[in-house]
Specification:
By secondary structure, this protein is mainly α. Helices cover 68% and strands 0% of the residues. It has helices at residues 6-13, 22-44, 51-69, 76-89, 108-127, 147-161, 164-169, 174-200, 207-210, 216-233, 236-239, 251-265, 268-274, 280-283, 285-308, 317-345, 357-379, 388-395, 397-414, 422-445, 454-457.
């Protein structure tokens, strides 16, 4: 290790990991959900706080417990015990009316879901560079499940979730084509910008994650193009996925079934994992082929979002509430059953690197479970406000994600993150997350929305 450069040490630090159990990932997300519940309890107290004090209180209730659970993991069980005790001891006032807005674009639980998953992603991209972040939470090398693996998939799911009604209503014409170009252009610039900066600055990179030239921004850019192509090829009623009805009409089901067959029986898995990088295709094979899986996640989220956000004028708020609960329950049960069938009955392993069928279903099941849980938590309260920090991050998702990436890069270029002990690293992460959250909150307070990408920044 002493003969390695700092760059090589950092690359070795994030390479070769096999992940953790799905239950450990779920336990961390339970901390997230209970933190949201406790924050809602505080909102019911109608505390008279200044804007900055309220933001700080939200940071302590929503972010701090999660950060402890992904760093000092030995305290996770105690955090859960404390959170459950607070909820049990608190008097929860229930209302006969669900906490829903009249507009389908402002469902509180969707705003909270998108904001929270962004927080998870932002925290992990810097935390992974420190020893305080357990290696089992880092992205897996080939097979396995980890916190960072699910974060990537959830980001795609979040984008598809808020695109349902827009995509189903828009017709393929010149305006739609120009709208798609406006969506992908910033992501293409960011993708090329990241690729060039990594090479020029000699920044550490994990090649087996996406490939030599590929990165996550390129994936974000190409998915809208795949949507456009599919809308040309398939009629609208086929493009609108009937997830729980006729499986033969499911683009995602066909995509993933054919892809998984090629992985297992046509040598594609061996090609992705073992082929020498000699040309553009082989150099970027992970990014290119994982597009199939990420696009399938997008399609599932797209269909779920179109069902959740459809606003029927003739239905009462109570009927809409019940319909949404039933929809989320159906998706959660179906996807969870499908995951256990793939992994236990068929013995298929989850792979984020290939974005295979089990990965797609695991991420989608986890997202639908979180949405259902957030919906039910919201339903317990009559408080109309989503936490400032979550609303703010949701308002400028891609811009805040880019800002967090820049901060992460600056920190890594300025100091050797591997030299910090656990307490020092934790302190840096606290300041980093507070700054990112505060910038998002200030943009929200000043009513500034940076529309880098309409799909990513949709308010839900």
């Amino acid at each position: 290790m002493t003969n390695l450069t700092i760059k090589q040490q950092k690359e070795l630090h994030v390479t070769g990991h096999s992940g953790s159990s799905i239950w450990e990932v779920h336990r961390i997300l339970l901390v997230v959900l209970l933190s949201y519940w406790i924050n809602n309890l505080l909102l019911t107290k109608q505390l008279q706080l200044s804007w900055i004090l309220r933001f700080t209180l939200e940071f302590l209730t929503l972010v701090f417990p999660f950060l402890v659970s992904i760093t000092f993991t030995q305290f996770t069980k105690y955090i859960l015990i404390l959170q459950i005790s607070i909820i049990i001891m608190s008097t929860v006032s229930k209302s006969s009316h669900p906490r829903l807005k009249s507009s389908h674009r402002h469902l509180p639980y969707i705003v909270a879901f998108r904001g929270y998953l962004q927080l998870i992603t932002i925290a992990a991209i810097l935390a992974v560079d420190f020893h305080v972040f357990p290696r089992r939470f880092a992205k897996t090398e080939t097979f396995g499940t980890s916190l960072m693996d699910v974060g990537v998939g959830m980001f795609i799911f979040s984008s598809g979730l808020v695109s349902g009604l827009r995509l189903s209503n828009d017709k393929v014409n010149w305006d739609y084509l120009m709208k798609t170009l406006r969506i992908i252009f910033p992501c293409i610039l960011l993708g090329f910008g990241r690729m060039i900066s990594v090479k020029v600055l000699d920044y550490q990179e994990h090649v087996s994650e996406y490939g030599v030239h590929w990165n996550f921004f390129v994936t974000l850019a190409i998915i809208p193009i795949l949507v456009l192509i599919q809308k040309f090829i398939l009629p609208l009623n086929s493009f609108l996925i009937a997830l729980l009805s006729s499986a033969s009409k499911l683009p995602f089901f066909v995509n993933e079934s054919v892809y998984q067959y090629c992985l297992k029986f046509k040598g594609l898995e061996d090609y992705i994992l073992n082929t020498p990088r000699i040309d553009f295709l082989s150099q970027n094979r992970e990014g290119l082929f994982s597009l199939i899986g990420f696009y399938s996640i997008y399609l599932i989220a797209f269909d779920l979002g179109s069902k959740l956000m459809t606003h029927h004028q003739k239905k009462t708020m109570l009927e809409l509430r019940n319909n949404r609960i039933i929809t989320l329950l159906r998706y959660t049960i179906f996807l969870s059953a499908m995951y256990f069938c793939l992994t236990f009955a068929l013995q298929l392993e989850v792979s984020r690197r290939m974005a295979n069928f089990p990965f797609v279903i695991w991420v989608s099941a986890l997202c639908s479970t979180m949405l259902l849980s957030l919906f039910l938590i919201d339903d317990c309260f009559s408080v109309p406000n989503v936490p400032i920090i979550l609303t703010s991050i949701n308002q400028n998702q891609l811009a805040i994600f880019l800002f967090a990436n820049i901060l992460t890069g600056l920190i890594n270029l300025t100091v050797n993150t591997l030299n910090f002990n656990h307490l020092q690293a934790f302190a840096i992460l606290i300041v980093y997350l507070y700054v990112v959250g505060l910038v998002a909150a200030l943009l929200h307070r000043w009513n500034i929305t940076l529309k880098f990408n309409n799909d990513i920044n949709a308010t839900g």
